[in-house]
Amino acid sequence: MKSLTLGQLATTLDVTVSPDEAAIAITGINTLDAAGPTELSFLSAESHLKRFAGTRAAAVLVQSRVRIDDPAGKVVLIVPDADLAVARLLSLFAPPVPRPESGVHASAIVADSAHLGVDCAIGPFVSIGERVRVGARCVLHAGVHVGDDCVLGDDCVLHPNVVLRERITLGHRVIINAGSVLGTDGFGYRWNGREHEKIPQIGVVIVEDDVEIGSCVCIDRAKFAATRIGAGTKIDNLVQIAHNVIIGPHCVIVGQAGIAGSAKLGAGVVLGGQAAVRDHITVGDGAMAAACAAIAEDVEAKAIVSGVPALPHRQSLREQAALRRLPDLVVQVRKLQEELRFLREGPK
To answer: How far separated are the first and last CA of the chain, in Å rounded?
Structure first.
């Protein structure tokens, strides 16, 4: 079991603790309810104060906006953002992620024309095609396929069974999790009077620096030009990104979202789980879409939308509230109709 002192953790977070507190041994991080006497916990909202009172944690990271009248002898570290502080400390306790040994595994197939950078780790049954360029310190786990003419920047990590079809470009420090496929033909067909005729997809996919892609994500190649994922964007599992989509930097795309062809997302856009974006739609910088939102029209920068079809969030909430009252309104209308009939026709 890994153990660090509270002083070491405080130094990482630029927080001051007393000499006695600094010597406390910390073996991990856990929730307020589950933390034991050698673990660190965190409190980010006043709604959890009752749980704070009962925690057995050795110390607690407390968000600065949370008011604690009586810490009851608990060791408290005040931080600007408790969740961010936890994120920074978790890596100190995380076990190392297994990776292939440096070099090329005996079962891997690497084309003679491919170039591998220094200190790469190429795992078992990896396939690397012609004219591929792999940057320094890249890690390709078991079963990865890299098609002809792909380019990988430095420090990329491709987890098991990732597929890069031909002519895909990754920037530096790109992480792609297991089972994702980049470069499948875009879904393009045209009815010719007899059948759906396939439209050739001759474009590419470009993934910029520091992008992380979850498991079982599909990013289609462009019909022409490029499908592009902006720097720093994070994509959850089971996301579909169609041909010629442009995603700006630092976006967050949550699981099962779908983005149709030629849609454009600006910088810092957030799509909730199962959100859908229609083809050729533009979503402005900093806009947010709630889970299951169906975006059928352009969204302005910094707007928040929800619902089917997606509307400004407050308007969507009002409409949902009105819809819930509809059964009672139907009863009232029927009653009024009966009263009106009585006034016109008298009793039957």
So the answer is: 86
3-state secondary structure 179-211: CCEEEECCCCEEECCCCEEECCCCCEEEECCCC
Residue 243 bears catalytic tag: yes
* pTM, to two decimals: 0.88
Neighbouring residues of 244: CB distance < 8 A, sequence distance ≥ 6: 186, 203, 222, 223, 224, 225, 226, 227, 261, 262
Element (DSSP H or E) covering residue 17: none
pLDDT digits (tens, 9 = 90+) for 79-101: 999 999 999 999 899 888 889 99
Q: Is 73 exposed, middle or buried (0-12, 13-18, 19+ CB in 10 A)?
A: exposed
**79 neighbors 39 (Cβ within 8 angstroms):** no
Question: What angle separates helix 6-13 from helix 82-93, to the nearest 10 degrees?
Answer: 130
The active-site residue, picked from 243, 250, 280, 313, is 243
User: Are 190 and 211 within 8 A, CB to CB?
Assistant: no
The 3-state DSSP class for residue 326 equals: helix
**29 and 90 in contact (C-beta within 8 Å)?**
yes
pLDDT in tens, 127-149: 999 999 999 999 999 999 999 99
